[in-house]
Write a structure and sequence with these properties.
By secondary structure, this protein is an alpha/beta fold. The chain has 10 helices and 10 strands. It has helices at residues 45-52, 75-80, 98-105, 112-125, 127-131, 142-155, 172-189, 200-206, 224-229, 231-238; strands at residues 7-15, 20-29, 34-38, 60-65, 68-69, 83-86, 160-164, 192-196, 209-214, 217-223. The strands form 2 sheets. It has a 6-stranded mixed sheet with strand order 6-7-8-3-9-10, with helices on both faces. The structure holds adenosine-5'-triphosphate. Adenosine-5'-triphosphate (ATP) is lined by residues 16, 21, 39, 41-47.
Length: 240
């Protein structure tokens, strides 16, 4: 049924070794929405994305993608099922060229013709990448690396994009372009995004829903515009 949320997280506990970082996270993410995941340093935002993409396996709880449990699913199967994770620090392979990095994004795709189409679309979206397709990753600026990481994820044609701090180190204008692109992908292709951001204002400007984590727990889930405009909520949960 179409009313099954794209992502359901139930009671997820996860961490690195003995002490959990996440303590019983519950989340429901409808398809075609953007959710901003906010919270102070160390709140567990990055760990949440890692738990969802299987990098930090949960010690308890359930994660369901389109109604099917995905705990323990190998990463290439998660990609095939529509999940893409753009990690903090971006994960561009600096020894490879722009084009080789983008091809990595299509590695698991069976539809080779569409993988090629998706690659061309990324070059249209990110003009600087098209100009520098033979440049090595280490020759790119921070903004270009961010575009490349995002572009590589898009070549996989994800349904669910997990995006960790895309604005980190970028000029406000570039951040604005990335936010506008996410909004566009949501509106045109129904992309679902989980967006971890320190830049609270720009995240809430593009998101439908805001989720605030504190010490590994969800402390509030609210309409993004309300979280942004309601002074009491802002003071209580976002500290500004
Ligand atoms: P930030 O914005 O600083 O990245 P965050 O909300 O994303 O913060 P996490 O990176 O998920 O928070 O970190 C949550 C907790 O987990 C922190 O206490 C951190 O020290 C710890 N942690 C993160 N990564 C590791 C790791 N690889 N090994 C051990 N502990 C870790």
């Amino acid at each position: 049924a179409t009313d099954i949320p794209l992502l359901q997280v139930q009671g997820v506990t996860a961490g690195y070794g003995a002490a959990p970082v996440l303590h019983g996270i519950d989340l429901t993410i409808p398809a075609g929405t953007i959710t901003a995941v906010l919270g102070a340093n160390g709140a567990g935002k990055t760990t949440l994305l890692r738990a969802l993409s299987g990098l930090v396996p949960p010690t308890s709880g359930r994660i369901m993608l389109a109604g099917e449990e995905i705990g323990g699913t190998p990463v290439e199967r998660l990609v095939r099922r529509g999940m893409a994770h753009v990690p903090e620090g971006r994960g561009v392979v600096t020894e490879l060229t722009v084009e080789e990095n983008l091809r990595l994004g299509g590695l698991w795709r069976r539809d080779r013709a569409d993988a090629k189409r998706a690659l061309d679309e990324v070059y249209q979206l990110f003009e600087p990448l098209a100009r520098r397709r033979r440049a090595n990753g280490h020759q790119l600026s921070g903004g270009e690396r961010q575009m490349l990481a995002l572009g590589r994820a898009l070549v996989a044609r994800p349904k669910l994009l997990l995006l960790d701090e895309p604005s980190l180190g970028l000029a406000p204008r570039v951040t604005g372009q990335i936010m506008a692109l996410l909004r566009d992908l949501r509106d045109r292709s129904g992309l679902t995004v989980l967006l971890v951001e320190q830049n609270v204002r720009s995240a809430l400007s593009v998101a439908d829903t805001g989720v605030v984590l504190s010490l590994g727990r969800v402390v509030v889930t609210a309409d993004a515009a309300r979280l942004h405009d309601d002074e009491d909520l802002r003071h209580a949960y976002l500290g500004f």
